[in-house]
Amino acid sequence: MTELTILNDIPATPVKTLPDAQTVTAVHHWTDRLFSFRVTRPKSLRFRSGEFVMIGLMGDNDKPLLRAYSIASPSWDEELEFYSIKVPDGPLTSRLQHIKVGDQIILRPKPVGTLVHDALLPGDRCWFLATGTGIAPFASLMRDPETYEKYDTVIMMHTCREVAELEYGRQLVANLHDDPLIGDLVADKLRYYPTTTREASPLMGRITDNLLNGKVFADLGLPPMDAEHDRAMVCGSLAFNHDVKAVLEKFGLREGANSEPLEYVVEKAFVGDGI
Ligand code: FAD
Ligand code: A2P
Predict the structure, then answer these.
(1) CA of residue 275 to ligand 2 center, whole Å
(2) Measured from the CA of 93, which atom of ligand 1 is nearest?
(3) What is the pLDDT of residues 132-156, one digit of tens each?
(4) Ligand 2 pocket check: which of 161, 168, 199, 268 to mutate, most ligand atoms within 8 Å of Cβ?
(5) C-alpha atoms less than 13 angstroms from C-alpha of 118 in its C-beta half-sphere
(6) Which residue has the CA at smallest separation from atom 21 of ligand 2?
(7) Residue 205 CA: which ligand is closest?
(8) pLDDT (0 to 100) of residue 200
């Protein structure tokens, strides 16, 4: 009798659990092309602010469909945050954009990346240069106290085509200034320079142009970049990264890596059209 009871407790079909599953705790849609979401954090996951991991959903044939995503939350956060594009026909994001609180995603807990403090030599000012979803690693780094311990001034330049695309970063910076833990640290050090290129806004123009014509230095009351004082981290499209690198080299900065820290580092915000 006892044996029968036990047998009856076994489900007819085994319940499938996703490998490396994490549960969605919040979702926010910023525009029809951009959303952010938070998930539970694996207890064993340690990462450096600025790194990325592979996340995704189960695809056809029970195979995980994974893509690289920068972790947008800082390394001290109890949860993980991601900031995502919605590509209408994108294999992952055409589905990922519909996730809801309580859903599960796959997260491979192997963080990597070059946008980390260890890949830069010490300096006075650090420039975060991003277009579009390229702000994600800086959403992590801007919320990390280590960033302000390492630098006197941190400049976040974020450029998008339209004003609404800047909103995630704008709110993040505003909340940082109000944050009881890090607000005072950030107050004098973080300079935010958001620009648009295809819709009128208070500050306009491409990052490359605003660096080359000196407008950003004049607007913020900073000297032009030089290799002794300035460090930079870059995250955007391939074309953007290519053009920014040329500008930084013009100011005398050299590209570094985890294995050889120098004056600037670069990461792709996505792989796509471009150079
Ligand atoms: P895919 O087949 O991967 O892409 C289809 C096309 O959509 C691409 O060819 C490209 O033209 C375009 N596209 C893809 N991603 C973007 C994007 N982010 N912005 C603009 N156009 C894009 N994406 C994020 O949204 N947030 C991140 O934090 C992020 N971090 C990344 C970090 C690294 C190191 C790399 C290499 C990529 C990162 N990506 C990020 C891109 C991400 O890996 C996927 O490409 C994206 O989620 C779309 O997946 P998909 O399967 O829907 O379409
Ligand atoms: P622009 O509107 O002048 O092309 P995208 O949506 O195409 O990825 O672009 C995001 C932002 O990055 C836009 O403001 C765009 O400006 C800018 N951008 C695109 N390519 C470059 C580049 N090669 N150099 C500097 N800025 C760029």
Answers:
(1) 13
(2) 52
(3) 999 999 999 999 999 999 999 999 9
(4) 161
(5) 10
(6) 240
(7) 2
(8) 98
pLDDT category of residue 272 using cuts at 50, 70 and 90: confident
Give pLDDT tens digits for 51-105.
999 999 998 888 999 999 999 999 999 999 999 999 999 999 999 999 999 999 9
Match 């004082």 to its residue by tokens.
229
Q: Is 17's pLDDT higher than 80?
A: no
Pocket around ligand 2: residues whose beta carbon is below 6 Å from it? 131-132, 159-161, 197-198, 206-208, 237, 239-240, 243
Pocket of ligand 1 (CB under 6 A): 52, 67-70, 83-85, 87, 90-94, 132-133, 136, 267-273
Find the 212 Cα to ligand 1 centroid distance in Å: 28
Tell me the domains of the chain and their CATH numbers. 15-112 (2.40.30.10), 117-266 (3.40.50.80)
pLDDT single digits (tens) 160-189: 999 999 999 999 999 998 888 788 889 889
Model pTM score: 0.94
